[in-house]
Design brief:
The complex is a heterodimer of chains A (about 120) and B (about 110).
Chain A (H helix, E strand, L loop, with lengths): L2 E5 L2 E3 L5 E8 L8 E6 L5 E7 L6 E3 L7 E6 L4 E6 L8 E7 L5 E2 L3 E5 L2
Parallel strand pairs in A: 2-11
Antiparallel strand pairs in A: 1-3, 3-8, 4-5, 4-9, 5-6, 7-8, 9-10, 9-11
Chain B lengths: L3 E4 L2 E4 L5 E7 L7 E6 L6 E5 L3 E2 L7 E6 L2 E6 L9 E6 L6 E2 L3 E5 L1
Parallel strand pairs in B: 2-11
Antiparallel strand pairs in B: 1-3, 3-8, 4-5, 4-9, 5-6, 7-8, 9-10, 9-11
The chains are: A mainly beta (about 120), B mainly beta (about 110).
Chain lengths: ~120, ~110
């Protein structure tokens, strides 16, 4: 059974940093693109970033470029999102998902940016 | 960036109704289009991929069509569990973009 489990969310002040993790199981993680998607309160889904199976290519939505970094450790079946210079508008539930077209999703982790 | 415009943004319908949601891309995306359903507090669920392929386990009352710039999601006979928000997603080019969502409520 494919499973994705996010962790690392929480309350952070504007300008602060957080590192999200996504632990995967039930599939060979080194075979698949992996993605981050977020859902802000009262807003729609927003694709944030994705990373190629071998980690050699990474793509980001413009609003997080230069602030967020996606990475993965296939040996540990894990993916990460390093978030710096956080803003109030980054407040959202962050989901990790498998594949470019997002077949499997985790349950999400809430990130709240507030003073 | 490719903009995905969904219509309507919200609608009310009754159980048994046929419902169609449209997604228009600002430029051609071939068939790199997926549809998702999300209920409040729940994880999004992929219904359709490659514009018209039904995800395994999804009821056959859901169908998708289109190519290029115009796409539709059709629910042939609404069931109580179908009331949710629906999103299209293009993954033809970066940045990957969602439509703004269509909220489907009970009339």
């Amino acid at each position: 059974e494919v499973q994705l489990v996010e962790s690392g969310g929480g309350l952070v002040q504007p300008g602060g940093s957080l590192r999200l993790s996504c632990a995967t199981s039930g599939f060979t993680s080194s075979t698949y693109w992996m993605s981050w998607v977020r859902l802000a309160p009262g807003k729609g889904l927003e694709w944030v970033a994705n990373i190629k199976p071998d980690g050699s290519q990474k793509y980001y939505v413009d609003s997080v470029k230069g602030r967020f970094t996606i990475s993965r450790d296939n040996a540990k079946n894990s993916m990460f999102l390093e978030m710096n210079s956080l803003r109030a508008e980054d407040t959202a539930v962050y989901y990790c998902a498998r594949d470019i077209s997002l077949l499997y999703w985790g349950q999400g982790t809430l990130v709240t940016v507030s003073s | 960036d490719i903009q995905m415009t969904q219509s309507p943004s919200a609608m009310s319908a009754s159980v048994g109704d046929r419902v169609t949601i449209t997604c228009r891309a600002s430029q051609g995306i071939s068939n790199y289009l997926a549809w998702f359903q999300q209920k409040p507090g729940k994880v999004p669920k992929r219904l359709i991929y490659a514009s018209s392929s039904l995800q395994s386990g999804v009821p056959s009352r859901f169908s998708g069509s289109g190519s290029g710039t115009e796409f539709t999601l059709t629910i042939s006979s609404l069931q109580p569990e179908d009331f949710a928000t629906y999103y299209c997603l293009q993954h033809n080019s970066y940045p990957i973009t969602f439509g703004q969502g269509t909220r489907l409520d009970i009339k």
